[in-house]
Design a protein that fits this description.
It is a single chain. The protein is mainly alpha-helical. It has a domain at about 1-60. It is about 40% helix and about 5% strand. Strands 1-2 form a two-stranded parallel sheet. Strand 1, helix 1 and strand 2 (about 85-90) form a beta-alpha-beta unit. Helix 2 crosses helix 3. The radius of gyration is 29 Å and the shape is elongated.
Length: about 160
Amino acid sequence: MNKKSKPKFLRKDSHKMSKLGKGRKKKQKWKKPTGRDNKMREKRKGHRKVVSIGYKTDKISRGMIEQKVPVEISNIAQLKKLRENEVPVLANVGMKKKIEIAKFAEKSNIKIHNLNVKKFLKEVEFKAKKTSEKKTDKKNESKKESKEKTENKTSEDKKWKQ
């Protein structure tokens, strides 16, 4: 059931250039070597390993996450139906639903595979505080401005009357 260890399959020269993944995790991707004199393609000793059928994982453990079946979650009802041998994976949902799911997961102590619930909720609360502070500041500024305008108008009216 345990996965066999396998090398990290990366492009040729990925350790040399940042555009191919040197120090940039998202850029570290596999691309099959096709050059005429490419040592990787020829599977020469001392060069990176090339993807081949021998590195395939066992049929039983293929597609599993921590020996559990991944299930895509897009609402709270699906999260409630979760069984013991299943791992929740958050689907592509909007922010409102994501917050609801995260709060429910935290309450019921469920760990979502592709979401750090505590960190996410902390960020959401922080952003909410910032936006509420900005709104209150804008309201206060607009009130002050309107008071100043009315004061200016009254002072101008008094000048005209005299």
